[in-house]
Structures are given as structure tokens and as C-alpha cells.
Amino acid sequence: MGSDAISRLKALLAEARDLRETLPNADRLQLIGLTEALQHELERPDEAVFRLTFNQPGHYLAIRLAIQWGVFEALGDVGESKKTTTQLAESAQADPRLVARFLRHLAANGTIREVDLDTYQSTRLSASLRQKSFKDAIHFMFDDFYNVGWKVPSFLDTISHRNPAEIENGPFQYAYNMPNKSLYTYFGENSGMAQRFGGMIQMYNAGKPFFWEDDWFPIKERLVEGGPKSDEDVLLIDIGGGDAGDLGILRKALGPEVKGRLILQELKHIVDRADQDGYEAQVGDWYEEQPVKGARAYMLQHILHDYSSDDECRRILKNIIPAMTPGYSKLLIKELLIPDRNAPWALTSLDVNVMQSLSGQERTESQFRNLLESVGFKIDGMWSHKDAIDVVIEASLAKGIDFGLSTSLNAGNDDQL
């Protein structure tokens, strides 16, 4: 029976390349999940602990050093050339015996391919690790962020193991001994770390569609229809949308026949460098009442996950409500949505990460519903995409609630309006 199972797995492995290229993404991800589940079932507990404590940290270290030594650049594209340990060590100006040890570990984990004695070729992964965004991600997590994880247990001791909720006094601040300063503020003082973080975000977004593309969020049906009638009206405000130029791309995608302005609201240094090609950029602060009234849509992209405190999220949401026109304006939220059950590691790992970096939290669908309903929104729909792990949530003001007094909306930490 054992030999038969091995034969079936070998046959499946032989088909892996074709499966990768032909399977729908959902099926591909399900197959990956099944292979991981198979490993968990076959692996003894002591083997699992050994893999977690010895193999995985050593593998990450090997990748970090290989980037520093230029190993992946030397190996080139997939199957491009064969390089010996001696050749790779010479180009790295490192001891061949030292380099050989890490090359073997990389090969043991499938990052590079061992094709002969002390001879290696590239793989899809090693070839990709030549890209700047991939290297930035490795450097940020290894050089800038590893030490934060080491400090999490002792940090939680200091707050009696409550859920971290202070964006300026969380695990990151504790590890770097810089209280009362957010991660983003620190980026302004450490441009190298900020650049590495930005590269990591580029890697995260690579290959994923914009929220209006590829039948994801039906923007024309949900916003354009029944939306602005003139170029003076506002179609969409992207609150804290960053400097990736998304709105300029959206304007081109919509075409000149679609009416309404697109507005980015951001910090001054981002506004100052915005190209404003097809959109406007203005200084904004989500902690202040929204100044642009009556827009068709107000959007928060990866903003609410910065805050594990629902009260802080309510504060941001309540600052948007007075600007909204009931029955016309919509709220769009683009965030991760963790399933209430059987959440995949790709989502749970990001939840743990945002807790360490920002004292933030990725939310489940039920948590989002409770949060939005607590300030008077109703959810009109949620849209996902096969190639993205975010969802787009559309909400509108619920009927029968008084939205007239902004002072009451911003007073205290009331659960209900």
C-alpha cells in the first residue's frame, strides 16, 4: 500500500508543471492546501518541531545570505547555467566551505536545484529572488522585523496579554525602544527601512488586479450608474490611498465619458510628489471630519486593519458619515477578510504581522458586519477575486438613523449612533 501511494504521488508530481499552468487558481490553491495537509498528517510531532525550529529559520538565513552573496544573480534564469560552489564563492568573495553549507540547505529546501556534485542551477523561486521587490521583502522581514517577533512574548507580558491596541505603543515600538511613535512616522526617519517596506508591498501586490479590473468590483454598475452627472461632482475619494497612482490608472480605465472627479487624500509629503494625472490630490487626515461632501463613494484601502481597536475604527468611520448623502453615497472598504472558520495561513500570517507592526488586526466577516452596523452602516455587498486575497465591501447609510450632527458622531466611544 505504501509503495502504491508513493507511486501515485510521484505521478502527480510529474504533472505539477502542467497543473500549475492549467488549473484554475482556486483549484491550484486547494491542491496546495491538500499537499500541506498530507504533510501534517504524515509528519511526526518531533519532526514538525524540528522543521519549525531548525529548518525554516536556517532556510530563511540561507536565502538572506544568498542574496547578499549574489548567488541568485549568478545562477540566472531557470535552467540557464550551472555554477559550482567554487564559482559562486569566488564571485561572493566568501569561503567556499561556508558557501557550500548554505547552498546545500537551499537545495534541500528546493530554492535552488542540485544537478551534480557541488553544482547548482536556478529554480523559479531563485530566479524571482533577483527582483528588487522580492529582495526588499526578504531584507525587511529579516533585517528590520525579525527582532520584533522575538520581543512579542515579553511585550505581551507588559500589557498582561491583552490584545495590542495602541498603534504608537505596540510590539514594534517595544522592540525598537521608541515609545509614542508609529511605524509610519519611523519610516520618515529611516528611509532605508521605508524603501524595503515599500518593495515588500510591491511584491505583495504583484500579479493581483486592481479592484475595478477583471470582473472584481463592478464599478460601473455600482458607482457610475446613478452617480455623478457632471465633471464637478466627485465620483470617488481614496482616503489614505498611498502614492501608487491607482486613481490615475482608474481614470484611464473609466474613459472620458464617465463623469466625476477622483480625489486622493493623503499626507503632505505624498501629496507633494503625486503626479495628479487624471486625479486630484489633497492633504487629508482620517482623524478629522471628511471635508468633501456628497461624493458618490468614499474608500478606505487597508486602513482599518491598522487598528485592532474597534473604537478607533469607529472614530474613522464616524468622520466620513457627515459627508455622505443618504441614499446616494457609498463606503468602499478594501481589506483582507479572514473566514470565520478554516482560515488559510496566508491570511492568518498577515494578521499576526499587522499585530506586530501596527497593533492592528485583520477582521472576519462577522467582525466587519458588527463594526459597520455599530455606526449605522449596512453592508450592500462583498466582492472577492480568484487572484486576490482582499475583498471589496460596499456599505451605505442605514435608513432611519439621524446623521445630522457631526458633533454627536465624534463624541466619545459610543457603540451606537
Automatic annotation (TrEMBL):
Residues 62-129 form the O-methyltransferase dimerisation domain. This is S-adenosyl-L-methionine-dependent methyltransferase. GO terms for molecular function: O-methyltransferase activity; protein dimerization activity. Residues 236-378 form the O-methyltransferase C-terminal domain. Keywords: Methyltransferase, S-adenosyl-L-methionine, Transferase. SUPFAM superfamilies: S-adenosyl-L-methionine-dependent methyltransferases, Winged helix' DNA-binding domain. GO terms for biological process: methylation. The keyword Methyltransferase applies. The keyword Methyltransferase applies. InterPro entries: COMT-like (IPR016461), COMT_C (IPR001077), COMT_dimerisation (IPR012967), SAM-dependent_MTases_sf (IPR029063), WH-like_DNA-bd_sf (IPR036388), WH_DNA-bd_sf (IPR036390). It comes from the Eukaryota.
